[in-house]
């Protein structure tokens, strides 16, 4: 049908506009507020079919005969050159379209040339399981459905006038027997976990947290497209660390010193307690301004090397530039070149989020 063709064409145009402006959307945290359960609303430039714009006849000027020196080109409706008064014509507006998160992830993957995630070990994105979803007339006695069997027997006795209400006795015969039956179904496995860690000491301002929030939105979007189920956990720290919910993660403001090892300790305990590495694909994303108590670096690196990296698919450290942070910690991770599961990136501002995503997710871990 013509309308289906037009709709398909419109979707192609929208997809092209999103790809064309993807860098702007990635760095714009405004669209995160428009996110629904499975859709996100994206403002794109108004899509217009090319058309002629007519002026008024007899006004003179270019294309209407000879003009006089100094005559303004393109008079306004009030007959005077330059800016006129309040207009009556509609302006050009943005059109908001709803795009599925799956489609958004696909566009992100194509534009950033991201490889598909390869789960480690024998973990499956989907697992085939048996579920008893139907009833059959034959089967092993261990699967006999007693309630359905007696219902069939009762129905048969009532229809044949052999059921006596005063002496209710239901005796099933072979034809009444019903058995549970199973079907093989693909059940999504929640076998991927993201653990976010963030420094919330006083040197991390609201601007830095907004950068983290924007990066986390796109990280979530991409990893959800690779796994049917995804668990997320959040850890905040200053000199001490704790696991919190998402709202607290993005809106907590603390003060005091910074010990990154406290976050690594909570992360390692969370993995051991909740996400056995043999069953889960684990992705850790840490964001900090690079400040850390000097004597804590050695303890932090020991925890990272021995208790976290051996158990995760990927550990990404994003250092968000802050006017108050020293930015020294990233230099302690210079062994990242020899450790494929450890990736680091410096995020100077919102515009750098795009490159950060490419650095973090381009590994295909």
Describe this structure as you would to a colleague.
- It is a single chain.
- With 365 residues, this protein is α/β, with parallel strands linked by helices.
- The protein has 3 domains: 1-48 and 93-113, no CATH class; 126-186, no CATH class; 192-361, von Willebrand factor, type A domain (Rossmann fold, 3-Layer(aba) Sandwich).
- The chain has 9 helices and 10 strands.
- The protein has helices at residues 2-20, 22-27, 101-112, 146-159, 206-226, 246-251, 260-274, 297-308, 353-361; strands at residues 39-45, 94-100, 126-136, 179-188, 192-199, 231-237, 241-244, 281-288, 314-320, 342-347.
- The strands form 3 sheets. It has a 6-stranded mixed β-sheet with strand order 7-6-5-8-9-10. The chain has a two-stranded antiparallel ribbon with strand order 1-2. It has a two-stranded antiparallel sheet with strand order 3-4.
- β5, α5 and β6 form a beta-alpha-beta unit.
- α3 (101-112) packs across α5 (206-226) and α5 packs parallel to α9 (353-361).
- The longest helix has 21 residues, at 206-226.
- The radius of gyration is 32 Å and the shape is elongated.
Q: List the uncertain runs.
A: 44-51, 121-125
Count of runs of 4 or more consecutive helical residues: 9
- Relative strand content: 15-25%
Main sheet overview: 6 strands, mixed
Q: Look up the CATH topology of the largest domain.
A: Rossmann fold
- The order of strands across the largest sheet is 7-6-5-8-9-10
What share of residues is helical? 25-40%
The helix/strand series, from N terminus to C terminus, equals HHEEHEHEEHEEHHEHEEH
- Morphology call: elongated
The tally of beta strands, per DSSP, is 10
The rounded Rg comes to: 32 Å
Overall CATH class of the largest domain = Alpha Beta
Which structural class do you get from the secondary structure elements?
A: alpha/beta
The number of domains is 3
Mean pLDDT: 75
CATH homologous superfamily caption of the largest domain: von Willebrand factor, type A domain
- Quickly give the CATH architecture of the largest domain: 3-Layer(aba) Sandwich
